[in-house]
Structure formats: C-alpha cells, structure tokens
Amino acid sequence: MLRKLMKYELRSYFQTLLPLYIALLAAALLSNLFSNRMLALVMQGTPANLIGIIYFGLMVAVCTISMLMIILRFYKGLLSEEGYLMLTLPVKPWQHIASKLICSVIVLVLGGIVAIISFVVLIFSLDFMDPVILKRCLELIVNVSQNFSIHWVFYFVELMVLMFIAIGKQVLKAYAAISVGHLFSRHRIILSFLSYVVMGGIMLWLWGLIGNLINLLHLDHLILLLDPETKPQTWAYHLAFLLLIFWQGVEFILYYLVTHRILSKHLNLE
Fold this sequence. Notes:
Blueprint: H1 2-34, H2 37-42, H3 48-78, H4 81-86, H5 93-123, H6 131-148, H7 151-181, H8 188-216, H9 234-265
Helix pairs in contact: 1-3, 1-5, 3-5, 3-7, 5-7, 7-8, 7-9
C-alpha cells in the first residue's frame, strides 16, 4: 500500500514540477548559447539578458513551488476535506506520513540535482576542456584519495546519510507544525507558523543546554581534534559525522512522533 501511496504522490508532484525542470534546463542551455560571442553577433536582436532573467525566475519558481507543494500535499491530503477520504483507506497513519515524507525528500533532492545540472550547463564552456584544467582536477582527486584512502568513501556515505536525514527532518518539522496548528478550530495557518517557530526555538534551547553541559564536563576540548592545525585523525572526522547524524536523527524522530501522535489520536478535520 505504501508503494501505491507514493506512486499517487509522485504523480501529483511531477505533473507540475516536471515541466518546470525542463524549462529550467532549456533556459540554462539557451543562456549559455547566447553568451557565446560568435552566436551573440549572429543573434543581435535576441534579448540574451531576458533569457538570464527567465532562468533566474524559473530557479526561484522551482524552489518555491516545490516547498509549497510539499506543504499543500500534506495539508490537503490529510488535514482537509480530502483527509476524510484518505483516512478511510485501510492505511495506517505512519504509512501516510512515510509516503509523503519519502516523496517530499525525493522531490527536494531531485530539484537540487536539476538546479545543479542547470547551473553547470549555464557556466559550461570549452574552457573547461583545457588539458591544464583537466590535469589539475585529476591531481586534486588523486591527492584526496591518497590523503584519506578508503575513508573518503565512508565520508561520502556519511555525508549522504546526514543530508537525507537533515532534509527529512525539515519536512517533518513542517508536518508537525501544521498538525499542531490543526488542533485548533480557528486561525490554523497562523498557529501552524507559530508552532514551527516555537518548535525551532525549543530545539535550539535544548541543544544549547546540552552545549552548556558539555562545557561543564570539560568535554569541549574534544572539538579541537577537528582543528586542521592539530592534524586530526581520520576517526575524528567519522565521529563528527556520526554526532551530526545523531543530532539530526533525534530531531527527526521527535518531529515524527508529534505528527504521528496527532494524526492517530487527536486529528481535528472540522
């Protein structure tokens, strides 16, 4: 059932976002072509600057619409009139949350990849094919591989895990805030926004409290292990990644528990 829910979600997302992705890549390609001096002479009547403005506008549109759709898909699917239908399906609350969360993360990651590709297309030129530049890039890769050996593979994996958890945490934070706002009968949008701000403030206070505790226990000197001047060991970087993953993971779980509790026990669709 989870797979069917995800299929339905992704179809709704890509009906709107896929044309924007294509338009963004096309605008980046056209802007690159019109920036070529020879082509600019031939296409003197073409407003090349206008294409650049369109590219920037599409970039903003992709980011903004992606975020709005993530919020609206959760709100309309579970907390509005559509929620009556969705919640009558033989699907548990965690499956609804998981399907929307996974699809939201996919959309955000894919949107980021498309944005990066469009930027590369925008700035790419034959200068990048210069043998000197290619040689320096190859030397950089070799140096990184030699300095970190197999550890760079683990660093990359840890970074990817951290990125996905951090993105998922932000999505769940929005879900939790919207769910809290819908515990009330009036001013739900304002209260959802206030809930988002308050939850962020509480988490900052908690982590600040933990930071003060670390100082009291005189554990803050461990941070110096990551100082480049001290030539930190590879395990220190692994430890830093794992601590960041733990930090983001704790918030991820808390926001999920808040959302799941409200949807399963205190849902108010009136």
